[in-house]
Amino acid sequence: MSLITIDDPPPVAPPGLPGLPGLPGPAAGRAARPGPLRLRRARRPRPDRLTTLAGHLLMILLGLFALVPIAWMVLGSLRSPADVFAGGLPTHPDIANYRDAVHALPWGELLFNTVAMALGVSLGQLLTGLLAAYGFSCWRFRGERVLFLVVVATWLVPLQVTILPNYVLLGRLGLINSVAGLVLPQLSSAYAVLLLRQHIKGFPAELLEAARLDGRSSWSILWRVIVPSLGPALAALEILLFVNAWNEYFWPLVVFNNPGSVLQIGIGDLLSADTVDYGGLMAASSLATLPVLILYLLLRRRVVNAFARSGMR
Amino acid sequence: MFLVDEPPPSPPAPAVTTAARPSRARRAGAAAVPYLYLLPALAGFAVWVYLPLGDTIGYSTVSWNLLPTVPKVGVGLANYHRVLDLPELRQALGTTGFYLAGLVLLGVIVPVLLGAATRKLGPRARAVYHGALFVPVLISPIVAATVWTFLLAPNGGVVNELLAHVGVGAHNWLLDPGTARGTVVIIAGWKVLGASVLIVTAGLASISPEYHEAAAIDGAGRLRTFREVTLPLLSPTLLFLFTTAVLLSESQLVFPLINGLTAGGPGNATTDLYYLLYSFGFTSFDVGLASAAGVLFFAAFAVIAVGCVALLDRFSLYQD
Q1: Where are the domains of chain B?
Q2: Which of the residue ranges A115-119, A241-245, B121-125, B144-148 would you say has the lowest mean pLDDT?
Q3: Given A45, A154, A159, which is nearest B45 (Cβ)?
Q4: pLDDT tens digits along A189-214
Q5: Which residue in B120, B211, B242 has the most chain A C-beta atoms within 10 A of its own C-beta, making it the best mutation to test that interface?
Q6: Which of A65, A94, A123 is the last residue of a domain?
Q7: C-alpha angle B246-A129-A194 in degrees, rounded to nearest 5
Q8: Cα–chain center distance at B107
Q9: Do A249 and B16 touch (CB under 8 A)?
């Protein structure tokens, strides 16, 4: 079963008669064939070849718009620093830019902090989100609607509005310039709650009821029944949350005031330097993106699917 | 795997009810259970979102420069007067409106049209396209800023090179006040467009084909079906896209883009309210001013956003 196409309409049969693209097939001839199913199908608006062709064309253009800048970044990083602006494929891949990039930033520290932050934040969000989503989907209780609004309404409060009090609080806790200062404020995520709620809501009620009749506690139902069957979905969600945390820019910008913070800040510093070394910048950007791309490739379809579903109730 | 791959046609509603009720104390304990599951997430929101929001309101009536040793001095509503008199505020307001319009266009309207135009593609081709469309989602805003700075570089960047072929002279897209804001929007659009198309496509696929069949049998044309069947049934997805475009994209995507691409310049051309708030606090260390601006901003924005969402929700149609 394909994971992305959630429930596709049945694939359209190619027009029975050869014809020029764009010319609708003779619908009457098709409708005349026997069988009630065919009759019904023939009445549905049948996408003609032109529509399909236009659809492919649109998607190809969009796909190029999405991918070409990334490709250009990687190609640029492999050119020699002198002709970083050249077009086409680099004939002699040159790693000089990567050497420059490695020297320009304290990679060990940046990588350590970034990985620690991304793991801490994403696993924390997954856990708090899972518990809250379980509470919201499997019980009816007083204040449910209000508390759900409390979760969603966090989107109404921009980070920029609350950042000063948060900065003061982090300072009081002694967490400025520390990974803990990055992780703690981000442990709860409305996005994680919403996504996980969708998944748990889709869980068959009969299974939960059966587990309950077996005498399992709600805690054991969560960890022994729900979590194991949500396994792959949880992995995909964890990857999404990890990528989000890896790419986080605002909190590190505030929490760290020394150069050894996280990768995104390091790259931002290279970008806002007085003279921008484009080759080195592209190499650093490629390096900072590589881990995320690898993670994505591991579970590509599931990640795309989990993400695409974020717009559903 | 059924529950992961396919959204269930109708979510099973029956809750886990407390069937056996032995004693009062136990009942009270059982009633507390759902709240305990919510506790960790809600505690996080309380400490890092709602209490600070209250603090911001408190800070908005004092004069303070963020130094712990310096006492806060109460100044009443003076900060609010100062904010409203600032010329930067009006400009930032206009820029925010510009960004929001761009984000709704590229994050909601265009994706819905593209999603509808491409919904009949075969599953295999679509999977390939979606794999590509998802890639900008993975790219951090700051890397997006570096990549586009490279593409748009005034001397030798590929965009200017390509435009030279059609007779457009080299241009410094990010340093010209006339084009800087639009360039920021297009880069933000690059991050959100494909992502939104993915979400729209998933939303379209979850609409039961029977509705369209019924519309076709009733003789509705394509446009009419789109307007009166597809759009209303897609409204939960639209609501989500609209909410994220209006509430999250500017604060979490455009902000790092501005910081990386232009630092608010040239002049103040690309400075929006979010960036202004941040620079009040962390460049001028004027806590009172930043907080007063934050409170006004939050209040105005919350009213507008809640109004929009309520409006959208009123016109929504849910399949279940």
Answers
A1: 87-314
A2: B121-125
A3: A154
A4: 999 999 899 889 888 888 888 998 99
A5: B120
A6: A94
A7: 40
A8: 9
A9: no
Tokens, residue B164:
């030279």
Q: Please indicate, yes or no, if residue A36 is contained in any of the structural domains.
A: no
Q: Is A4–B127 a contact, with Cβ atoms under 8 angstroms apart?
A: yes
Same domain, A87 and A150: no
The predicted complex's ipTM stands at: 0.85
**CB pairs below 8 Å between A and B: how many?**
386
Task: Count how many residues are written for chain A.
Answer: 313
Whether A59 and A116 map to the same domain: the answer is no
What's the pTM value of the predicted model, to 2 decimals?
Answer: 0.84
Q: How far is CA A182 from the centre of its chain?
A: 20
Contact flag A209-B291 (C-beta cutoff 8 Å) = no
Q: Which of B16, B121, B144 shows the shortest C-beta gap to A139?
A: B16
What's the rounded Cα separation, in Å, for the pair B196 and B189?
A: 10
Q: Who's near B306: CB < 8 A, 6+ residues apart?
A: A156
